[in-house]
Structure formats: C-alpha cells, structure tokens
Design a protein that fits this description.
Elements: E1 12-21, H1 25-34, H2 41-55, E2 68-76, H3 79-91, E3 98-102, H4 111-121, E4 126-131, H5 138-144, E5 151-155, H6 160-185, H7 195-212, E6 216-223, H8 226-233, H9 235-255, E7 269-273, E8 276-281, H10 287-301, E9 305-307, E10 310-312, E11 316-323, H11 330-346, E12 352-354, H12 358-373, E13 382-391, E14 397-408, E15 412-414, H13 416-426, H14 429-449, E16 457-461, H15 463-466, H16 471-482, E17 489-494, H17 495-500, H18 502-515, E18 518-524, H19 531-535, E19 541-544, H20 546-549, H21 556-572, E20 575-578, H22 584-592, E21 597-598, H23 609-621, H24 627-636
Parallel strand pairs: 1-2, 1-3, 3-4, 4-5, 11-12, 14-16, 16-17, 17-18, 18-19, 19-20, 20-21
Antiparallel strand pairs: 6-8, 6-11, 7-8, 9-10, 13-14, 13-21, 14-15
C-alpha cells in the first residue's frame, strides 16, 4: 500500500512519516483518521506544557502564526508487508522514524517478529507495540529487540490525541538522536563521515569482502602544501578549500564505475582530520582500477580553486592499499595506505603510490629518527661543518657554506637528506634553522675577532623558515645579538621556494636586503626561473645546481645550461657560484666561462670548525702563489679530517 500523499502548504512543517501495521480493517481505518490532515498544534502545546511542568520552565504561549504539521502515514495489513516497507525506505535513504505494530496479526507473523526484523534493517527506528492483551510482557519483547529504550507500548483502545502525541514525541526523540549521532560520526565542516564512522564503515566492507572473497581498495588522500595555504591566506580560506575539496571528491567517487551497482558514494568517503581524506572502493577487481580511481581523484582536485581574491591550485598525494594482500582489518589497511601516501609525496605533488611491504622498514626508520630528532637541540647533538668557496679568477677564498650535521650517540652520523626532510615535515626545522643561523653568526664573529679572513658565511634557509612572516625580523635580531655586521652573512634560499610564493619572496628578499645580508638563490636551474623574474628579486648571487656541474664533461646540454646561467648572471650584474666541482676539467671549463666562484670536493669537503681555521691560516700563507697553484696547493693540503664521512 502506498503512503497517503500530503502536500506541504505554506506555514506547514514537513510531514512526519509514520508506518503502521495492523490486521484489522477497522483499526487501520482508525489510524488513517488519526494521521489525517489534523491540526497538531494542540498536541504540540500539550507536550510543551508537560515539559514546562517537569523542568520548571515557562510554557510557550500561543501567539504569532500557527504552524501546522501533517503526517505521511503508510498503513500495512501484515508483519511481512511492514518489514518490506522498512527495507525499501532504508534502501532509498528515507527511513520511517516511527513504526506502530499490532502485537497479534494472525494468521501470519506477529508484531514481535516484525520488530526484530525491523531492528535488523533500521537500528534507529522508534517501534511502538500496540496490544489489547494483558499477557504481553514489555520487558520480554524489549529484551529480544534491543535497545529497550527504542521500544514503546500502546494499550488498546487508544485515544487519537494519545497516538498523535506519541508519534510526535518519538519523532522528536528520533530526530534529536540522529542529530547527536551526526555530531558524533560526521565532520561538521565537510559533512563527510569522520574518522570513527569511516573506520567502522571500512571494517564492515572488509568483512563483507572477506566473506565473498572480493578485494577492497583504500585510498589515503592528503592535500599537498595545505599548511602553507592556512599560514598565508588564513584558516577561513583553509576551511573553504577543505569544503570544496570534499565536494570534488564526492563528485569524483560518484562518477566512478559509471553508475554501476558497486559504484562508491559519499558514504565511502571520509575525512580523517586536517587535510586527510580516505576513499573506500569495495569489490575492486584490479590494481589498474584502483590507480584509475586515484587518477580521477587527482584530476578532480587539481583544478584551480577560487579562495576570495586568490586562485590557487592544490594537488593531492594518494596512497593505495588493497585487501587482503595489504591487510585484512581496517587499522592495518589504513596504516599501509598512509605509508603509501607518504611515499607518493616523494615522487612529487599530485602522485599516487601502491603500498609495498618494504615501505614498513622505511617508516620504522623514519619514526625512529623523528623521535630522536625531537630533543636533539636540547642534547646539543647538532654541529656545523664549513665548505670553502673559492674565486676562480684569483684562487682566493671567498667564503664558507655552513652545513648542518647531526651526530646521535646511538645512530651515529645521520645523513642530512634523511633528517632534514623529517624536520621540514614536523616543523622542527624552524628552531633548528634558527640555531644554525645563530651558530654561524657566532662563529663568524669569533673569526673576525681573531683576524681570520673567511670572506662570508653562507647559511641555508629552509622553505618553512623563509615563509615565516617574521623571518626578516629574526635575522636582524640574531645579527644584533651576535654583534656581527650583516655583510659577513649570506642567506641561501632555493629557487623552488622562491617560486612557490613569488609575491612574498619579492617582499621578504627586499626586507632581508634592507637588513644588510647578502642573498643567494640556491640550486639555480632546476626551477625554471626566468630572467624577468630575477630582475624583480633583490639577490646578489646565483648558485648553479650541482646536477649541471657534474655532467659538464659529458653532456652538451648541461654545459649549455651552465654557460647560460653564468652569462645571465653577468647580464644582471650579480655573482655566480658553481656547486659540486669534483674534477680539474670541470674547474677549467668554469674558468673559461668566467664563473666567479666554485665549491666542491676538488677543493675541499665540508670541514669541522677546527679544520676550517687551519685552512684560513693557510690561505694567508699562500697569497703570493698563482691562481692555479694556489687552488692546487689548497686542495692538496686540505686537513685529513675533512676526508672523513
């Protein structure tokens, strides 16, 4: 039987859906009259009056426009029919809040049977057992159809007001519980299932997939550089980005599989927190299908997003784990997809990666390093080594590059590339970077006081440091506290960091130039900066990336790039330094191209402080030698300690 249609009229609330089952035609007709087009204001006022008496509150008085509420009632004649109606309503996403069941409906199943089946289909439904028999034990039925607080009883014969008020009260309870559940299980910002709800859903999908021997793919999605957007544009912009990303993810998932029976929907998408989402893809047949889904998600998210007056492009990194090979329970599959996502970031932004068992070893190493890195500053485990830079025209020492080193009592010397990435990801690079700057300034001041001609000390600045809005003020403060003239310090900022936020870079570099330090663009050539861009940046030197220098003897293309950078620097009137010079032929080529300075293992490895002082004293003793002799002499007499590690 179809529910009685009802039209929502102006000033009328949406209909309250009620489902009824009774085998007696007269009772069914009575229900139709009870739930007909009745004015429920009196019933609602009665409930409000009762609440006021119970909780000592002033009852709402009549006044203003009276709102009318109607019922949308479906009347069934058997237990089987009402169970089928509940199943259909749940399947279509429009469940019945309240169900009235006659206890005895011969010759078929009774109300207790129907209540049990309804509870399996819809755990949230409020069930009312109606009976005229005194032998019905409410506690007994409640025990078989838990929870007992969602089972109510109505004694026949009943009054129409009693039925309507019970329906309204139970509907209010149902709606309040659903609201509480939504707060508990759904993310308030995006409307997506939260972590707890998503994990429950994943566990259910895995159990069903295990029973049917079907694979399930889990995609772990992380927005690249989300923290930078929060820091630069504010949290309101970050929230808007998350909402737009969630909407795009919904659309991408709904479009997968072209509307097939097993296409994922919004219920298979969740927000774990921050900028991290997961997508559950049940009954996925192949790894190719999973990678295609990841591609669809990446494409959907990387379209430009309008945030206020800014248009930005955000790329996701996606990690993929597939059951049962990568895990048979929710926690394991989530962990492994997270690991895969982390490795996808190493491939570059907007990439995906499948989980591989070897990733776990790398993750354990990373966790170990991260744990020991948090406190390395307090334990004074960091140190600086200094790699000399030489002028290729004169062979004179032009300065040092300060390079961070970490020596742990158990792990020994930790490779820089390993711990720097962790420091960046955790934010530890900010206090570590400040320590490097302070230590380099203190060392420069000491060498100045000793009369040692070190030229300048170059300090690498991380992207996270440089994007801090108070970074220029920090540099000025450290220089003032150390008593060092700013001209003895050079800050190196990588080309990719400058290009990441060109507006801020231009402003920050100008502020740093005003402080008095010299500025260099590090790793130049790999970020494809243009001559036009460089004209607007207050920089003093370019550092040719070592990847070009290492192939000078074998690659015509790299020779052309290195030569072009050197010529461009002369055109702009700024200096140029070649990194990673390891052979005499490389040095000769750079001299021919009139490269200003160079550094690399041909001249010296990074030196501990004591060995750097020895080199400084040797420089003063070799002033009368020719350019080439001076370079060879310095390289041949580099302190033996420099060859370690």
């Amino acid at each position: 039987m179809k529910p009685k249609s009802s039209t929502v009229k102006p000033g009328t609330e949406s209909p309250l859906r009620v489902l009824v089952a009774d085998d007696e035609p007269a009772i069914r007709e009575a229900y139709r009259q009870v739930f007909g087009e009745a004015d429920l204001r009196a019933d609602l006022d009665a409930i409000q009056d009762l609440r006021a008496k119970l909780f000592n509150k002033t009852a709402a008085t009549g006044g203003g426009a009276v709102r009318r509420r109607t019922f949308e009632a479906m009347i069934c004649s058997s237990a089987a029919e009402v169970v089928a109606a509940v199943g259909e309503a749940v399947a279509t996403g429009n469940p019945y809040p309240v169900v009235f069941l006659d206890m005895r409906m011969p010759p078929g199943e009774d109300g207790a049977w129907a209540a049990s089946r309804i509870r399996d289909l819809d755990p949230d439904a409020e069930i009312v057992i109606c009976t005229a028999y005194s032998d019905v034990d409410p506690a007994n039925i409640g025990g078989h159809v838990p929870p007992q607080d969602k089972i109510s009883f109505l004694q026949k014969p009943f009054h129409p007001h009693e039925v309507r008020q019970m329906a309204v009260a139970l509907y209010s309870k149902w709606r309040a519980e659903r609201h509480i559940a939504r707060l508990a299980y759904f993310d308030s910002l995006t409307g997506l299932p939260n972590r707890e709800h998503s994990m429950s859903r994943l566990e259910t999908v895995l159990q069903l997939g295990g029973a049917s021997k079907q694979s399930t793919a889990l995609l772990y999605i992380d927005l690249d550089n989300f923290k930078r957007i929060n820091d630069t544009l504010g949290h309101s912009a970050g929230d808007e980005l998350l909402k737009q990303s969630a909407a795009r993810l919904r659309e991408a998932l709904e479009s997968l599989a072209g509307g097939g029976a097993h296409r994922p929907g919004a219920g298979d998408l969740g927000r774990l927190g921050g900028d991290e989402f997961i997508a559950i893809l049940p009954e996925l047949a192949t790894r190719e299908a999973a990678s295609a889904a990841a591609d669809a998600i990446i494409i959907a998210l990387q379209h430009p997003v309008k945030l206020g007056h800014h248009e930005i492009v955000v790329t996701p990194s996606v990690g993929i784990a597939i059951s049962p090979d990568d895990g048979t329970d929710a926690a394991t599959l989530l962990h492994n997809s997270d690991l895969a996502m982390y490795f996808s970031k190493r491939r570059g932004h907007g990439a995906w990666a499948f989980y591989d068992a070897t990733m776990s070893d790398g993750a354990l190493r990373r966790l170990t390093l991260e744990g020991k890195l948090r406190g390395a500053l307090d334990r004074q485990e960091f140190g600086l080594h200094y790699q000399p830079q030489f002028e290729l025209v004169s062979g004179a020492l032009s300065g040092f590059e300060a390079l961070l080193r970490w020596t742990h009592p158990e792990l020994g010397s930790v490779p820089v590339l390993e711990f720097i990435e962790i420091a960046e990801d955790t934010g530890l690079i900010v206090p570590i970077g400040e320590w490097v700057l302070r230590t380099a300034c203190a060392q420069a001041r000491q060498w100045r006081d000793q009369g040692l001609p070190f030229g300048r000390i170059s300090v690498n600045v991380s992207g996270t440091q440089f994007l801090q809005r108070d970074f220029p003020e920090l540099v000025a403060r450290v220089l003032h506290e150390s008593g060092l003239e700013p001209k003895w310090i050079e800050l190196e900022i990588t080309e990719t960091v400058v290009m990441r936020d060109e507006a801020w870079a231009e402003k920050a570099l100008a502020s740093l130039r005003a402080v008095g330090v010299t500025l260099a663009i590090d790793d130049f050539g790999i970020g494809y900066s243009s001559l036009g861009r460089l004209r607007h940046l207050a920089v003093d030197r370019l550092k040719v990336d070592r990847s070009f220098v290492s192939n000078l003897e074998s690659e015509v293309r790299d020779r052309s790039i290195a030569s072009a950078i050197i010529k461009m620097s002369r055109t702009l009137g700024i200096g140029v330094v070649a990194e990673g010079v390891e052979t005499f032929n490389q040095m000769l080529y750079l001299q021919e191209q009139e490269c200003e300075s160079a550094q690399g293992y041909l001249f010296s490895r990074p030196l501990p402080t004591a060995d750097a002082e020895v080199l400084l004293r040797r420089v003063a003793a070799n002033v009368d030698l020719s350019r080439t002799e001076r370079l060879r002499h310095l390289a041949a007499e580099t302190p033996s300690e420099a060859t370690k590690g």
